[in-house]
Every structure is written in C-alpha cells, then in structure tokens.
Amino acid sequence: MSTIEHRFGRYGGQYVPETLMPALTELEAAWAAAREDPVYRSELDGLLRDYGGRPTPLYRAGRLSERLGRSVYLKREDLNHTGSHKLNNALGQALLAKRMGKRRIIAETGAGQHGVATATVCALLDLECVIYMGSEDTRRQAPNVQRMKLLGAEVHPVEAGARTLKEATSAAIRDWVENVQSTHYVIGSAVGPAPYPVLVHDLQRVIGVEARAQILEREGRLPQRVIACVGGGSNAIGMFTAFIEDREVELIGVEAGGEGIDTKRHGAPLTVGGRAGVLHGSLSAIMQDEEGQIVEAHSISAGLDYPGTGPQHAFLRDSGRARYEAVTDADAVSAFKELSRLEGIIPALESAHAVAWTLAQGDGELDLVCLSGRGDKDLAEVLGAS
Amino acid sequence: MRADPVEATGVERIAGAFERARGERRAALMTYLMGGFPTLEESVRIGEACIENGADVVELGVPYSDPLADGPVIHEAATRALQAGATLIGVLEVARSLAPSVPVVLMCYANMVLAPGVDAFVERLAKSGAAGLIVPDLPSEEAGQTLAACDARGLALVPLVAPTTPPERMTAIGERARGFMYTVSVVGTTGERSSMSERYAEVIARAKASTTVPVALGFGISTPEQARQAANAGADGVIVGTRLVRAASAGNDPAAEVGRVVAELSSALSHEPTPGV
Would you say A358 and A379 are in contact if contact means Cβ atoms under 8 Å apart? Predict the structure, then answer.
C-alpha cells in the first residue's frame, strides 16, 4: 500500500484539534487502500462515466481563437453532471465514506457547486447530507441553495465573519469535531489537513489526464500554456498534475484579484506572496495580518472568495513550476460576458477568471483553459454588477 | 508553598499549584478567560476575580479569527475582543498582570504562534511571566519545534488528549506532556453541556495511565456539580471555560459575576463545606 505524503515541501501538515487526529489517520489508511483497489476504482470510473458524463470534451473555441490569433482549447468540466468539476471529488469521497461505514456527510460550499455535487452524490448513494454555506453566499448563489434542498440536503447558513467560504469551512470542521465518529467531511478543494490535499488531488487529476491525451490527439503537440482558476485550487491541481513533468508546458493559476491586489480586497494569497500560515488545518499561502489573524478575502466569485489555498500550489509556486497571477472582478465579469457571446458558453465566474487571463495575453500559440464550471448560478450576481 | 514566581520555571510553578491543591486534598481549579474580552482592562479584573475566588491556574485565551476548537460562546467572545482591539501584545500584558499571583497558561491557536516565528513567540511568552502554553490545533505531529522552544525556557507545552485518542497515541502524548495533560471530556468543541459525567472516569483513567504529569479535565464542565464529579472521577484539575466567558459577557460588572461563579466552583471542589454559597 502506498503512503500518502503529509507535506509538499514545507507546506501542508495537520494543524487540527486532537479529537480529529484519529479520523485523519483512519481516512489516510482508507484512501491509501481504496485508490489501489480495483473494485473501488471500477465503481468510481463507472459512475464518473455513466452518471457524471466523463470524459468531458475538449473544445477548440473557434471564434475566441480567431479573435486572439492563436488556438484556445477549453476543457469542458462545465459539462459534468451538476455543472462543474466538483462532482469528480464528491463522488470519489462519498464512495470512500460508504466504504468506511460513515453514513453522514458534511461539506462546506462557497459558490454552491461543491454543495450541489455533494448533495447529488448523497442522494445517489443514500447518505445523510449537511451543507455549510456562508449566508452572504446563500444570498448570491440562491439557485444552488434551492438545488441542494431539492436534492434532500440540509443547508446551514453560517453567520460568522464575512459569511463566506472561510466561515463555512470552519463551521464544517467544528461539526466534524462534534460528530467525527459517524461523519465523513467531504472537503471540496485541495485544502485542509493531510490527507485531504492528496485525496482531492488524486480524485481531480482525471481532468488533466484526459485533457493531455485529448490535446495530443487533436494538435499532435502539448499546449504552450495550461490555465486554471485557483481558490482552494482543486480544478487547477487536477488540470496541472498531468503536465507537471512536461517542463515545456507553462502552468498558470489565476487567483481572484477582487478590487485589485493593491487594495487588500482580493483573494490572491499566492500572487501577493507574504508569510506562509495555517488555515483550516494546513500550512500554505494565506492572507493574514502581522499577528497571524486571518484576513477576510474578497471576490465577486464566491468560489474564489477564500483567504487560503491548497498547500501543493504554494509548493509549485515556490519551486517555480507554476506561476500565479490575479484577475480583477471587473475583468472576470467582462470575460464572463465575452465567452457567452463568442462561444455560446456561459462560464462560472470562477472559470471566467481563467478565461480573462487568456483574453489579456497578446502572445502565445496554444492555450488550454480549464472551464471548471458553468455560470447559470452567477446570472443574478453578474447582471446586478453591471 | 506556592513556588517563587521569579525564581521558579513555568513548569515548576504549575507543578506547585497542583501540589498545593493535592495538599488540601482537592482538585485544582483552572479557570479560562478570554484575553481582551470584553476589554483588556476588564479581562485583568476578571483574572483577578478568578484568583481571589480560588482559581489555582488561569488559562488565558488569545482571541483568534478562526478558533476551530471552540464552540459559539468562546468564538463570539474572541470576535468581540478582536473588534475591541485586542492584540497578542495586549493579552501578554494581561498575563504579566496575573502571573505574580498564579501560574498563567496561554491558550493560543497555531497560526499566531507561527506568525512571528516559534522561537520569537515563545520568548515573548516567557518574558510575560506566563508558565505554559496550550495550542489547541497543534497535535504532537506538528509540535516538535514549539516543545523544544518551551523546554528551553522552562515553559510547559500542555498537550490535549481526546476521548477519540487511541491508547498508543495517548501514551506517546503522555510521555511528552509538560505541566499537565489537558484531557478533553467530550468529542466536540468547547461549550457547556448537560450531564456528561458518567464518561469522566473513563477518560481520566486512560489519561492517568499514560502520563506522570497531573491530568486536568475540560470542555463541557460548567456547573459546581460537574466540577465535583470530575474531581471525584479522579481529575487532578478541573477546567471551566465557557461558563465563565458567558459570565464575563453578562451584566455591568463582569468581574464580579465571574468571581461569583468561580467561588461556587471553588467551594464545590473544596473539602470544607462553605456555608452560605
């Protein structure tokens, strides 16, 4: 059985209350066994294919390519069942929870995509489901709240702090501390204490594995650049992993620039740099003040409105293998509209950050962008902002 | 018999507090207060009220933006303390005020320990006169550097153990425990709970079997009755937090209210019945 690394360089670790430590040990052993178990793999792969719709298409965005004078391909994670890449992880973790004999599932959600994916797989696998969501996010992503409830989940609005993803995650962790023996926490991004960043990485790497094979088949070459948005960073790590050994491929993570990275109203800890710190159980790039208090993030996109990021991204940044840049709210909204009109694809506001980065580049030959989710949920927010 | 606060190390002062309680054939009363709540000045008065009414050890919380081990009452107090402008420097001043009378153990989340660098943090803690440190989100896997820094200055890095902690792990933690072993009485975050006392004996016995330092029970203990049950179940120390933080948020004289509750708890742990309380 393979071992699961707790650190990526200096980042990662397990900064959690003692009560959770045995559960993390149990989860680590369960995942190390499951990921090499052909029975688990075949059940997961079967569901990803027949229920989730994998493999997702790789689409050459013709009008966008023409406009930019280079080929731009979109990896269509928005075409997954439930409308985003989140299903890959939720399905894998819910199957794992069932294997572990845990019948109660909790999850945090920002944009609501992970909450919907988790509520969906809980309906499918007959598991109890509780979703924590900041009350600011239940407001700006109201359609997803309705979907979760329709799917049979209990949605708990969280009133603490800025009432967004950070507080929802803290509330989910507190629930887990209370109910650890009966409950599995399906964390939605590549964050959290070990083994979560590896677990989520393993379940999302299918994105890049498919995309790499698809673009080789279509273009006979690797892309020049691979671009994905980064909040916690699960679609980005899923996309990047297959390309990490291809040294000639640039990996670009696009963070939430909010109102601008010089304003403090952003969600771009990797871009801004600064001291590493602990948030939600692991050491990574975070937004904090001088004394170590976590600072509130800001983004128009609820899924990127988070002051931390996955530890592997901090490692990839420091090692120079990937680079991270920020796109503002305004540019993301423009890209949201532009992709809708040019290609007939309404992207999630999160994914629109990656699209905006590509739109802003004057150079290049072949870009591969992860379109991590669809944007129906964002209509009210975008139309309200314009 | 209290160890001299100037000469003795933090570890020795904590040991002295437990010895003194043991000498009086009772469990030590360990009271938690949130530094800077409702204000820094008031939290000094609250700490003094704890000491005057029988606290043997004061656990001093540093307000943090994301307190994962705390329930709603302490979380809210932390938020309000931060809004009122509390800082680590301010809370260490609270420690400095209380430390001459009683061992003060700082309760602080990991990111605030890491922020200035572990050594610099522990050095500041030592200079404040505090006797020890509890980091609720720093399990033994991550605690090496902090333990070394505390050991180098005679400060006690107090570990937590939970009902979920398996036996081998409990032993490993017990061997590295300094000051006392903070035994969490329930699976959960901090907060008041109705009678959980039937489970006290089991977790205390498990903790005692795995360490040579005193065992203190905390989380969920709020009433004099529960405090007495914890002591009867074998706890060397009884930690009361949320009940006192709630007292500190009530009324226009928080220190008096906290003092009143501490007196009741102290009386419950004392072998001499105190009339009129």
Answer: no
* Sequence-separated (6 or more) residues with CB below 8 Å from residue A324: A230, A252, A253, A254, A255, A268, A270, A271, A313, A317
In angstroms, rounded to a whole number, what is the distance separating the alpha carbons of residues B182 and B240?
A: 12
How far is residue A267 CA from its own chain's centroid? 14
Task: Answer whether residue A209 shows pLDDT above 60.
Answer: yes
Q: Which chain A residues touch B75 with a CB distance below 8 Å?
A: 160
Report if residue B1 sits inside a domain. Answer: no
CB pair distance less than 8 Å for B165 and A22: yes
In whole angstroms, give the CA distance from residue B16 to residue A318: 48
pLDDT band at B272 (very low <50, low <70, confident <90, very high): low
Which residue is listed with tokens 């990996």?
A251
Tell me the pLDDT tens digit for each residue of B209-243. 999 999 999 998 999 999 999 999 999 999 999 99
Judged against a pLDDT cut of 50, whether residue B277 lies above it is answered with no
Residue B188: list chain A partners with CB under 8 A.
19, 177-178
> What's the confidence (pLDDT) of residue A248?
97
Rounded CA-CA distance A270/A326 in Å is: 9
**Are residues A16 and B79, on separate chains, in Cβ contact within 8 Å?**
no
Contact residues for B101 (Cβ-Cβ < 8 A; gap 6+): B48, B51
Stated as kind and residue range, the H or E segment containing B255 is: helix B254-269
Question: Which one is catalytic: A77, A84, A86, A301?
Answer: A86
* pLDDT tens digits for range A14-59: 999 999 999 999 999 999 999 999 999 999 999 999 999 999 999 9
The whole-chain average pLDDT of chain B stands at 93
Measured CA to CA, the distance from residue A385 to residue B19 in angstroms comes to 65
Task: Flag whether B272 is in a domain.
Answer: no
- The whole-number pLDDT of residue A385 equals 60
CA A150 to chain centre: 23
Task: For residue B58, give both structure tokens.
Answer: 């004061």
Q: Does residue B32 lie in a domain region?
A: yes
Q: How far apart are CA A366 and CA B250, in angstroms?
A: 64
Distance CA B52, CA A228 (A): 60
Q: In whole angstroms, how far apart are CA A123 and each of A148, A183, A258?
A: 10, 16, 35
**Could you give the ipTM of this predicted complex?**
0.94
Tracing tokens 């933690």 back to the chain, one arrives at: B173
**Span A160-168, average pLDDT:** 89
Nearest to B166 among A22, A279, A292 (CB): A22
- Collapsing DSSP to helix, strand or coil, A374 comes out as strand
Using alpha carbons, select from B128, B187, B191 the residue that is nearest to residue B155: B128
Measured distance CA(B197)–CA(B178) in Å, rounded: 26
CA B130 remoteness from chain centre:
12
Chain A residue with minimal CA distance to B116? A291
Structural domains in chain B (count):
1
Report the C-alpha gap between B260 and B179 in whole angstroms: 27
Q: What share of chain B is helix, strand, coil (3-state, %, to 5)?
A: 50, 15, 40
* CATH number assigned to the domain comprising residue B122: 3.20.20.70
Select from B209, B204, B193 the least CA-distant residue to B233.
B204
Domain that includes residue B52, residue range? 10-267
Q: Is residue B4 part of a domain?
A: no
